[in-house]
Amino acid sequence: MDAVKSYATYSLLLIADDWSRKDDFAMTAKIPYGNGHAALRRSRSSTSQQIYHVTVVTKDRSPLFLDFEAACAAARCHQDASNLKDSTMLAWVLMPDHAHWLLRLGQHDSLPSVVTRLKCASARNANRILQRRGAVWGRAYHEHALRDEQQVLVAARYLVANPLRAGLVTRLGDYPFWNAIWL
What we know:
Order of helices and strands: HHEHHEEHEHE
Shape: globular
CATH topology of the largest domain: Alpha-Beta Plaits
CATH superfamily of the largest domain: Transposase IS200-like
Largest sheet: 5 strands, antiparallel
């Protein structure tokens, strides 16, 4: 078995947690990556000027942003320059229990840094309005690097159409918690 095929098979086994075949790869030591989301975070990398589609969910998928004022407070953070620094928010949508961001990283920040700032600022603002403390967002997030303009267009359309697909509105213009730089 060549090295590439062996590595690909090994990676698939890790993802599927299929430890029944671990002896095929002479794995004698415990894999040092942890479990679940911790393992995913360790393998993340970010590239300056890369565009990412990021999805974050509220803790326990709680629909905190059904509260209009809390959603307004959180949404203000999505375009705040102090949260983005030299990164650019291309499009975003805030749903009752999650958010999607289309971000172009700047030269000086990593994706985890930008996501952390956005999550912290929006949580702080929403908690203030809701008169509560504690986590607003789940610890993990999903990101996908977009490779070309076609992928960016598809992702932007997906983001802004989210309220329509969820049945929150019948016309996109009726949903207040989204924006895109192209409009």
